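Dear support,

We are seeing what looks like truncated structure output for some complexes. This example has two components. We would appreciate it if you could run it in full and send us the complete token output so we can diff it against ours.
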Amino acid sequence: MSTIKDFTLCCPLPISDYPTVTLAHGGGGKLMHQLIEKMILPAFNSPLLETRHDGAVFELGGARLAFTTDSYVVNPLFFPGGDIGSLAINGTVNDLSMCGARPVYLSCGLILEEGLAMETLWAVVQSLKQSAEAAGVQLVTGDTKVVDRGKGDGVFINTAGVGIVEHGLTIAPSSVRAGDAVLLSGDLGRHGIAIMAMRQGLEFESQIESDCAPLNGAVQALLAGKVAVHCLRDLTRGGLGTTLIEIAEATGLQITIDEMKIPVRDDVAGACEVLGFDPLYLANEGRMIVFVPQGEVTRALELLRGSPHTSGAVEIGRVSEERGGLVKMKSSIGTTRIIDMLSGEQLPRIC
Amino acid sequence: MKFSSEYRDASAAQGYAHEIRRITTQPWTIMEICGGQTHAIVKFGLDELLPKEIELVHGPGCPVCVTPLELIDKAVQIAQRPEVIFCSFGDMLRVPGSEFDLFGIKARGGDVRILYSPLDALKIAKENPAKEIVFFAVGFETTAPAHAMAVYQAKQQGIKNFSVLVSHVLVPPAMEAILGSETNRVQGFLAAGHVCAIMGYAEYIPIAAKYKVPIVVTGFEPLDILQGIAMCVAQLEQGRYEVENQYTRAVPEGGNRGAQHFVKEVFHVVNRKWRGIGEIGASGLSLRPEYAEFDAELRFNVSQYTAEESPLCISGLIMQGQKKPHECAAFGKQCTPEKPLGAPMVSNEGACAAYYRYRRAELATAGKGAR
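Here is the complete output from our reference environment:
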């Protein structure tokens, strides 16, 4: 059969291994990457899409703009440290920020399920408003649809955003160089554990709050401080591990990180031990990695630490000359291992 | 983090590694029983710290890996039924059956839920009286007490819409099956610490004596495993074959009597099929006749079903320590974590998945060098 496939110019169904979509296709791991590579990218065939950045950056009427979109389907709608409204604003603000843009205008599409309590909707709308104000962006256009009871999960939100690029840097994996330092903007995994704890009714001694936050302030601080930023990525689904692998694969360079330098709060680490999760792959909603030349580390960390949502910024590793596009991690006992992409969602283990 | 960071200390790890090198004078083959230990060994690269004379082989102690194919198929059949809410620990959902895995059933609209405790399934049963709640009771001696408690409470509370699909297995018979095999290479064991926390370690004493193998009850953190190996090598070098306890902070000699009581109350010992290995006598647990009303196989009439495994998969040889995952022709080719042929490629604790995740690139480089 494989020989026949080679002669097919346009595969009628590119991902024939899976007749139906599974949750893993949206999990941020390998299956989602296969879906994008085999189905989405070939279908639209756009050089801007091919960059596979968090948004598209292009010239329009003399201005350099960034444009992005994201949909939010989180369950539960409200969780410690945030809700679907703050997520929908911060997620899109952060995607624009990762392009090196200053986010300006956002759109908001609400898909509501019949029967949703008006009070709940009001709370979500208030959160959208407050989060937009806090991030310094304006919600300027929108849409509302209602679907039959049982066809939605209360509220789904889509936001799109436009930002302006006010510098001459190319902030992308293609700018990453051997010798660059990898900075992480704060502790890992709180969003993932906060959501998991709500969904599963798990209780910890202290409440673990999501790290959901806008990162545009911190990025603007770096740019205003003239730091030669090479690449920015926010750590959402798939976590630090998946994001680093994406960048290593895109650049063909090796990234080596040090487990001991990666901040994970004790309560998050404890939850991971119990559930069999690896904090490297937990979702975050207010964390990013920053690639800068070695000489700029001190200043970049100083600027990040002076910004409210990145006060815990640290250097966690280095890009090296070795080719191969691998991510390696020095473990706490001094050995080194390869970090691989997860196949689907992390699964809680048996024992 | 307290209670874990102190067992991941680099200088202490080097200290144990040095001690192992110092006392090792000849090649030894040691099997770690539990998949949790395999995972820690590969994740932390512990075998890199060992002298080349010490070979670690990975044992059959991953509950996901040894659950027979036909039981996965039975789970899939039950989970497809519209009246069923099928509950399971997370890592069982991706284990491939003959045709589907449980994730596939969920994608097709089946109500498949990941739980952390079987007792939560009882809560779901009470909240959904019109539904049939089935819990996939898989695991070694470690998970048996919680499953026993759920069934016991269901009987006490008269919960009729709850049942369990049981595939419980026991460690000591599997060790005997490995030791009794003509091709056995295992000279010493790291016994699974958490299994012993429940059962104690008295039952290992006759095995150590009969087969003249040292058995060291070992924990799961890097320093636990290195210390366990050091204790095992010391016995081998001195010609001793005793049961020793490295994991004293969790394992008393008698185990957890309360837990054992409920296991005996609800389950009895039966022959059981192990995926890739075959049937081992008196190696599993099944519901006692008094609790047969909670047996999902009977309730949904799937007990007669059988299935054949993929001929490409050598998981049996891997779980008996006779082959390493990368020595399988299908490893990383027909068999990957996305499309696993056999269960060891699925679970976090499976030897094949651990090799695929942490070793693939190194193996590829080494392969090129050799050619």
